[in-house]
């Protein structure tokens, strides 16, 4: 898989995409992640990428020309399955979307900044618009990092145990059950006996029961 990310502030992506599971996936050559600095396509000697909005109003807008030139340049070498714009007014991201995107080959993520991007880029290039929640960030970089992490961990071979990804919260529209590790008794706080029983079916039944209970209590909208 290849994930390209267009950013006005690429430094924001350095840490989240160069550590932990995502970095291991890169080391295994299971994913290629490229951060494209939009300023490289900026206009005039100042490498301008933003301007005031027509009609007045507070806040700057990422200009159409730098984005057009950047996307056009990238498309010369890569055919993208999806061109995704991270925006508060996009479709709310969820696990089903992550699952679907993990099956794609090439993704291009566009990070908004300031008041957003010129609408003409959305009209002529963007194939998906995604929001990570009903709140506003300073830019789309953190949202792009979240998308990338959630997608990459689903690629076969990234996690040592594929069951780890398949048993995550939301995979079956359920929250994950409680988890425990050693010691079995800490200050009188004990691990449920069923988890110590070694009886796989009973453990599976308990986990499903706990998932249903937790989902009903905390996220009944999922049921």
Description:
The chain has 223 residues and is an alpha/beta fold. It has two domains: 2-152, SPOUT methyltransferase, trefoil knot domain (Alpha/beta knot); 168-222, Orthogonal Bundle (Trp Operon Repressor, Chain A). Helix content is 33%, strand content 19%. It is built from eight helices and nine strands. It has helices spanning 20-27, 64-75, 95-101, 119-124, 141-152, 162-166, 193-196, 200-218; strands at residues 2-7, 32-37, 50-52, 60-62, 82-92, 106-111, 128-131, 185-186, 189-190. Helix 3 links the parallel strand 5 (82-92) and strand 6 (106-111).
What is the CATH topology descriptor of the largest domain? Alpha/beta knot
What is the fourth-level CATH superfamily of the largest domain?
Answer: SPOUT methyltransferase, trefoil knot domain
Sequence stretches where pLDDT stays below 50 over 5 or more residues: none
What fraction strand? 15-25%
Largest sheet: 5 strands, parallel
Total domain count: 2
Helix content: 25-40%
Q: Name the quaternary structure.
A: single chain
Topology:
Blueprint: E1 2-7, H1 20-27, E2 32-37, E3 50-52, E4 60-62, H2 64-75, E5 82-92, H3 95-101, E6 106-111, H4 119-124, E7 128-131, H5 141-152, H6 162-166, E8 185-186, E9 189-190, H7 193-196, H8 200-218
Parallel strand pairs: 1-2, 1-6, 5-6, 5-7
Antiparallel strand pairs: 3-4, 8-9
Keywords, separated by commas or semicolons:
single chain, about 220 residues, alpha/beta, Alpha/beta knot, Trp Operon Repressor, Chain A, 2 domains, two-stranded antiparallel ribbon, 8 helices
């Amino acid at each position: 898989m290849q994930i390209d990310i267009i950013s006005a502030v690429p430094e924001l992506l350095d840490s989240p995409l160069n550590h932990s599971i995502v970095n291991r996936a890169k080391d295994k050559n299971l994913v290629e992640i490229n951060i494209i600095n939009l300023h490289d396509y900026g206009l005039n000697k100042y490498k301008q990428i933003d301007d005031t909005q027509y009609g007045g109003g507070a806040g700057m807008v990422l200009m159409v020309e730098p984005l057009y030139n950047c996307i056009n340049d990238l498309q010369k070498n890569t055919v993208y399955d999806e061109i995704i714009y991270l925006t508060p007014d996009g479709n709310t991201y969820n696990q089903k979307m992550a699952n679907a995107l993990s099956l794609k080959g090439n993704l291009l993520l566009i990070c908004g900044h300031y008041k957003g991007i010129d609408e003409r880029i959305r009209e002529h290039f963007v194939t998906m618009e995604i929001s990570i929640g009903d709140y506003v960030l300073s830019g789309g970089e953190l949202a792009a990092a979240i998308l990338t992490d959630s997608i990459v961990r689903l690629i076969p071979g990234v996690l040592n145990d594929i069951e780890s990804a398949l048993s995550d919260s939301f995979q079956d529209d359920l929250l994950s059950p409680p988890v425990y590790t050693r010691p079995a008794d800490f200050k009188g706080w004990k691990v449920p006996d069923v988890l110590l029983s070694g009886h796989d079916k009973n453990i599976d039944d308990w986990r499903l029961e706990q998932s249903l209970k937790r989902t009903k209590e905390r996220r009944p909208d999922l049921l």
